[in-house]
User: Which sequence fits this backbone?
């Protein structure tokens, strides 16, 4: 099992924690990670875009001029795609972009990115993360002490003070351990959590 350092809020090492290999020590499956990211981004798409084809735009019943003898190219309808106001050739229509991954694939992809963060020394564990007030400066001080900038802060449960304190820091997001996903873990350079957060992650995903 992998061991990582445990820090206090001042960035000082206060111990170590043993991580469960079932979550933080799996074989990294890059293909599944790619599939999970593609699926998540696709599922965010509304799929409501729409444009009219030549059969749907108004007008165009009459041939604009006779077939021969005008000096112009032959035209059958003013609603053809080359005309201003004409239809779109391959017009986008509302569609469902969603991609389904089964539960095992989603979990393995998440475990893969968590494992890669641990391997790259980008997984930071705090003994606790408690703020006595909503203060962005205090949250920034914790991140500065850990020397991280673009990070996702994973909490064992929602903490309003921590969430609101981190809200206005560029490149930082907060998430509850039960709702983390592959794309968000991959998107941020570092993962910052607490011992309680590690326990919750292992409880849910092991």
Assistant:
């Amino acid at each position: 099992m992998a061991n990582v350092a445990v820090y206090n809020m001042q960035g000082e090492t206060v111990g170590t924690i043993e991580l469960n290999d079932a979550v933080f020590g799996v074989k990294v499956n890059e293909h599944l990670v790619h599939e999970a990211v593609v699926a998540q981004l696709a599922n965010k798409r509304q799929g409501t875009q729409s444009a009219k084809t030549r059969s749907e735009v108004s007008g165009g019943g009459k041939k604009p001029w006779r077939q021969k003898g005008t000096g112009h190219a032959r035209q059958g309808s003013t609603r053809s795609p080359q005309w201003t106001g004409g239809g779109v050739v391959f017009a986008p229509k509302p569609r469902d972009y969603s991609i389904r991954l089964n539960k095992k694939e989603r979990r393995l992809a998440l475990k893969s990115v968590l494992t890669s963060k641990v391997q790259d020394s980008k997984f930071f564990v705090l003994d606790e993360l408690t703020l006595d007030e909503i203060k962005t400066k205090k949250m920034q001080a914790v991140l500065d002490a850990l020397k991280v900038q673009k990070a996702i802060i994973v909490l064992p449960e929602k903490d309003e003070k921590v969430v609101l304190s981190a809200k206005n820091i560029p490149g930082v997001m907060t998430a509850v351990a039960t709702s983390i996903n592959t794309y968000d873990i991959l998107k941020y350079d570092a993962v910052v959590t607490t011992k309680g957060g590690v326990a919750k992650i292992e409880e849910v995903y092991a």
